[in-house]
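The passage that follows is intended for readers who have already worked through the single-chain material. We present the inputs for a multi-component assembly, then the predicted structure in tokenized form, and finally a short commentary. You are encouraged to pause after the input and sketch how you expect the pieces to fit together before reading on.
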Amino acid sequence: MTSTSTTEPLRAKTRSVPRHARGRRRGRAEAGRLAALLLSPTFAVLALVIVYPLVSALRDSLFSSGEQLDENGFVVQGDQFVGLRNFADIVRGAAATRFWNAFGNTTFFMLTTVAMETVIGMAMALVMHHALRGRGVVRASVLVPWAVPTAVSALLWRWMFASDGVINAIIGHQVLWTTEGWHAKLAVIVADVWKTAPFVGLLTLAGLQIIPGDLYEAARVDGAGSWRQFWQITLPLVKPALLVAVLFRILDALRMFDLPFVLIGNQKRSAETLSMLAWDEASNLHYGPAAAYATLLFFYVVVVAFLFVKLLGADVIGEARGRRAVGRRAVGRRAEDAPAAPPREEVVPA
Amino acid sequence: MTGTATSTRRRSWPRVVGVAAIVLYCLAPFYWMVVSAFRRPGDQFAITPLPRPWSVENFLAVFKPDVGFGRSLLNSVIVAGTTTLLTLLLGTFAAYALARLNFRFKTAAAGVVIAMSMFPVISLVVPLLKLFTNIGWINTYQAMILPSLSFALPLAVWNLTTFFRQMPEELEQAAMVDGCTRGQAFRKVIIPLAAPGMFTTAIITFIVAWNEFAIALSMVNDKSMQTATVAISRFTGAYGFDQPFGTQMAAGVIVTVPLVIVVLLFQRRIIAGLTAGGVK
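Having made your guess, compare it with the prediction:
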């Protein structure tokens, strides 16, 4: 994988063909126009389906519609500007308990599921990396939970967690998993971890495969045991890939909707997430509060992503930049051994 | 890996156990779904490892005319298929620009695409629900397809960019030296060579779009327009149980097994695509 050539295609090309030096500037301007042309449809669609709703939600969250009564008791038609009242109501008004509960659930699910998925995913990646036999079988089976639709996997777990279901039969107790209480939370966590830990495992495996084997040999020669090798070689070197996987999982867990919605149900206190709360309000035509919830969720996601990238240095765009630096520092460059881990930076100009 | 091979042979049984554990972890719940689907409705709560006797009654119940599940499957195919085609069409252009052209704001453009893929779906469903209600788009395909592009497009662009970058640039340059314009080089050299990558991206996008739930749930209230994932979650008792788990499992098998087969056939490619995109 001699991927360096793709970093700056035009410059590299013109450098190798110096007599086209005059064409370089023209080429770059042409490339800019072409890029604008090629990118504009995608950005137009993204503006329509993401930027417009975002702005619209911000606007809606400042209005109240349909549920105002005037002094004679009639419903006031049309939107009423209420400023930040929707937000104030959410944070400390009548709906505050429900909001903070959903906020707590969302955060709790995010922390627990991502922690478990990281540990299990890492373990899976290590096993897959060192597996001698059955690699194909493992690879195939790891993709199955990913391919099962979340709604179907929620039903599947609802069935397994049913009062007469297989899980109660195995543990020998009659536990009402999918009603309310900590059982419901646990059911959501188990179902989510089942579906997504293998995905974390795949991403981590790709990171493991580019660690040069010589490092382990050297460590063994120096007398480092496998435990020490894991902490001193594997973990630091797999960290960039792992961080990106964890970031994606965190953001995904924060918007969790289908799973608790189908597994536990709508308007259940124990498992209601921010997404479900916003959806419930919108489906009851309370667009103002719904938009406020949606906006708050959006900012929550942004803040978490920002903190994660800043504090832990997850390199999302130039993920392989870190990898390559690591590879350069490492003695033996065995990156060619990693078919499943194509370099994915190059977006970052040199 | 050759370096570790000697020591792995020495202690291979923990690895075998590990492999078995992963396979069991991933497949046991799926296995249970298949087994439950093939039980007779009356044996629904049996916990024998294999159905005794086997029965396709649950599958017949899924396709009873009043359930309308066939129509839901068709809706899913239309929505996920159109989403995939649109995504591939737009995404190929964008990905080519990001992978091959050198222009200002390239990093910013790539960053925006990545950031968009992290957007919480509900944050766009709520305002779009209001918009689509106002313009009479509720219960239409476009009301499901358009919002689906919000997550499918960044995913596809990211995947395709990686594939385009992996192709040797010399090919394209050679074509341009031979007198092709950049557009011709793209059409005649890059696209045919990128076909495997585009195929993989199409599979991944289709699966993700097929599995979509929140948008389809919100934008449709007419039973004949709902997609398969929504339809399954709304099955009501055909056999008088509180929840017709057998029927739901049978429907789950119908919805999932085609995906699983495709995944198994193209596992190598899909894994390469998933780990390259890094996005679910």
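Commentary: The domain at 68-234 of chain B is CATH 1.10.3720.10 (MetI-like fold). Chain B has a mean pLDDT of 83. How closely did your sketch match?
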